[in-house]
Amino acid sequence: MKRKIWKTPGWYLFLLLLILSIAAVVQVVVLGVIPTLYLVIGIVALLLINLLLYFMLVSRRVNKINRILGSVLTVFVCAALIVGNLYLYKTNSLFGNITHSGEQRHELSVVVKADSDIESIGDLNASIATSSSTDADVISDFVADVKNKENVDVQTEDAGPLLDMVQTLYDDESEAILLDESYRSMISEQEEYSAFEDETKVIYTYVYYTEISANTSAVDVTQEPFTVLVTGIDTYGSIATTSRSDVNMLVTVNPVTKNIQLVSIPRDYYVETDCDPNLGCAVGEMDKLTHTGLHGADTTRATLEKLFGIDINYTLRVNFSSVQNIVDALGGITVDNTDGYAFSIGGYTFTQSVMELNGDQALMFARERKSFAEGDRERGRNQMRVIQGMIDKATSPAILTSYMSFLDAVGDSFETDMSSSDIRALVNMQLSQGGSWTIGSVSVNGTGGTDYCYELGNYAYVMYPDMDTVEAAVEAIQNVENGGDPTNG
Question: Is 15 helix (H, G, I), strand (E, B) or coil?
């Protein structure tokens, strides 16, 4: 009596193959980045492979040797499909990870002097000094959090601007201050508080989250030019943390001509803040551009839209960890510094040449500004050189050897309000059309000086914008938008 096919080992091996094949097809369709022609060819090829292996595994007309060969081939194809499904799953997850969750993380600390006998918030005998830059509702929520977690009733007292609040701690007028951690580095940059880290300690931490809206001017990113604000915050770790925007770059993309215009903007640009007042910022106040990041990327975007007189369609946030992780995941990048300057920093020496950099080297190269006569302006050029190196490596065949680690790094290193469907459409377009991109880079300039900075509540170094260079940058952006070539300079 003949055995039924579902009672043969080959039938179950084929079922595994079929399940893995269906999973791969579904994931590719959901991914939505493979061009239709390639997708159809791939599905047909996979179907033919399944039919061939089905015949070799279960047909009664196949001899023992071919059946064994079919089993070996099926195991090989199944292994390839398992790896492929893993790649597809991680790629699909990536698009969800880099689209922001709608929340931004904030951290408040109760800070006392390092030599104080106060070790916990329950040891306080007086009110906690607060800054006028901290929202009253947030302070109320902090008080409620202490009551709920520590069963301690605390009192707060407004001490005015940030540095006035800090000074009350140094003058022993306050036992403790309530510090928004995104302002910590601003304090340490002031000469009189340069040892703030060592001279203070944290006795209580309160973390809260605020909602951020996708305030985009969406376009068809495969057919229309668009501009992205790339803003880099001065922190390591979670990309959701609020902090200053130390890197600010406009990236204008024309998907039809495959031209990209980069515009670097100094962190100390003295600008008029524009934003949604609900974000806690002060509309119309003058401050450094970097301080706008304390109220989120939307504030930085609105401020730059006002300065440049243009629409910025999307934002992309990165931090220090982003650069390190991505460059290392790419296996290092090539940076062309032949038009730049040689300098040494952090134990590394950077030459006026084409260099191979790892993640830590790329970060140090992109962050340094004190080694240059032009300071932040040359740093902006170096940042554009690093971005160019990352784009070149990520779009080269070399990406295939580090694809999985690249996905792991990218997933936790970017946060954007561009929709995942738009990102998929861009990838689909590049895979369909191929071809390289032409990138140009310019920097806006200014004159250094000292002026009052609203968020700091004090005077500090600023750069007054040279509006001629701003207008030239706008012309370069509009030229790319209108189909022209990108500008370098």
Answer: helix
Distance CA 57, CA 69 (A): 9
C-alpha distance from residue 59 to each of 8, 20, 66 (Å): 11, 21, 10
SS3 at position 265: strand
User: Amino acid identity, residue 210?
Assistant: T
pLDDT digits (tens, 9 = 90+) for 268-314: 999 999 987 776 778 899 999 999 988 888 899 999 999 999 999 99
Task: Tell which phi-psi region holds residue 92, choosing left (phi > 0), alpha (psi between -120 and 50) or beta.
Answer: alpha
* Cα 188 from chain centroid (whole Å): 25
* DSSP 8-state class, residue 9: H
What are 394-417's pLDDT values in tens digits? 767 666 566 666 666 666 667 788
List Cα–Cα distances, 395 to 83, 163, 425, 464, in angstroms.
Answer: 22, 46, 16, 37
CA distance 193 to 264: 30
What does the block give as tokens for 263? 């515009």
pTM recorded for the entire structure: 0.74
For residue 403, the one-letter residue type is Y
